Amino acid sequence: MLAQGATLVFLDVPAGTEFGVDMQTNVVGEKFRGVKMIPAGLHFIHYSAVSKTGASAPRTGFFHYFEKGEILVKKWDKAAEDVSSEPVSEEEVERLKVNLRGDLDQYLAVFSYVDWCSWIALTRHVTREVLERLQPESCVIHSATPFEPVKFCSRRGPDLASMASSSGDGGEDVHLADRARELLQLKELPEYRIRFTEIPRKRHPSNATPAEITRHGMDSSYVLERMLSSWPREHDLLGELQFVFVCFLVGHVYPCFEQWQKLVRVFCNSSEAIDRHPGLFSDLISVLHFQLREVPCDFFVDIVSRKNFLTEALALLFRNIAESAVEDDSPASLKMKAFRFKMSLTKMMGWSFEGAHGELSDEDAPVIVDLGDEHKPEGPNW
Q: Are 246 and 108 contained in the same domain?
């Protein structure tokens, strides 16, 4: 197993640092040098620096596809309290490979298989291509998004000092205040931005008739089809649904949860697409099944309105599948799978879908187009 499994050598990590692979998190000790016997495939390496008072820094991590027998070497940068950006030399990697069966082995933690099956189910559709497209250019996932001033002045120190020491009629003070406001206008660093699939704001074709605009406003199938066409394979969008979920669940990235909600709404509100993509919706149910096992039943309840967005969205999905034209005469059919999923959620979460009518949020509400007087049928004047 040692020869088949991959190895992560993580050098110079301070004792007390929170470190984890996939869904497991531990606090490392003085002797920690990495993890061995990692199964081949996609894994998420995450860590948080811990202060002397025991306060943890926001979680940071990276995804990596491990090959059988691969040795990945990373070093800790004490000044940055993060993984060093400097590449490890080939000579040092080879030296560590030779030492792997010697003294180094005793300092390597064994990969925990407790949640491995769950991790596989949660990342089944996250292929290398999906990962490459979605992850930031830096390949680093930050729970706390790095920002920089919109208007950054490289000489702000001397400039501000000279303005603060100058005297006059107050004009310098006004200028200083304006500059301070500019520095407070922040933007997300592009190299750390997760590249979500954009959800089209236009919900209908350009040449759509008023009746078609209304129909597309009530059904997100047009939006879903456009999103599917932006990927090489239709199941890649399920890969994004899984990617953003684990980034939120394990990486603590809240914008990923917001993207997950948007994707779920699009899928659940796409009625016409079910007949065209029954296999996609069958796998969607499997994806949601494993995801919902990882969260408490009240997680999706709005603390203000007390509404559960997910029960409303899923009620709409179940209704759309039940009313679709897909065959339902076999135990493995989409309709039977959706029915069993609904029953399992009722039993596991205590959710009732009978009273949920699948109401849409304002952003998904149907667009009703006024046809105008010229489109109204002729009739008697009342």
A: no
DSSP 248-267: HHTT--HHHHHHHHHHHHHH
pTM check: above 0.90: no
Distance from C-alpha of 71 to C-alpha of 321, rounded to nearest angstrom: 46
Q: Are residues 335 and 229 in the same domain?
A: yes
User: How do residues 137-178 score in pLDDT, each as one tens digit?
Assistant: 999 999 987 766 666 544 444 444 444 444 455 556 666 666
Contact 6, 34 (CB under 8 A): no
* Contact between 284 and 267 (Cβ < 8 Å): yes
259: amino acid identity, one letter:
Q
Q: Which residues pair with 60 in a beta bridge?
A: 47, 142
**Dist. CA 198–CA 247, nearest whole Å:** 18
For residue 94, list its beta bridge partners: none
User: Structural domain of residue 178, as residue ranges?
Assistant: 147-188
Burial degree of 267 (CB within 10 A; 0-12, 13-18, 19+): buried
* Consecutive H or E run containing 64: strand 60-66
The pair phi, psi for residue 7, each rounded to 5°, is -130, 135
* Residue pLDDT, tens place only, 280-308: 999 999 999 999 999 887 787 765 556 78
First-to-last alpha carbon distance for the chain, in angstroms, is 86
Other beta carbons less than 10 A from residue 128's beta carbon:
10
Residue pair 44/36 in contact by the 8 Å Cβ criterion: no
- CB-based contacts of 313: which residues, under 8 Å, 6+ apart? 264, 265, 268, 269, 358
Note whether 30 and 52 are same-domain residues.
yes
Measure the CA–CA gap between 173 and 158, rounded to whole angstroms. 15
User: HSE-up of 30 (CA within 13 Å, CB side)?
Assistant: 0
Give the Å distances, CA to CA, from 150 to 137, 156, 157, 180, 308: 20, 14, 17, 12, 37
Q: What total of structural domains would you count in the chain?
A: 3
Q: Does 217 share its domain with 355?
A: yes
| Helix H or strand E encompassing 186 | strand 186-188
Number of H helices, E strands in the chain: 13, 12
Separation CA 323–CA 174 (nearest Å): 65
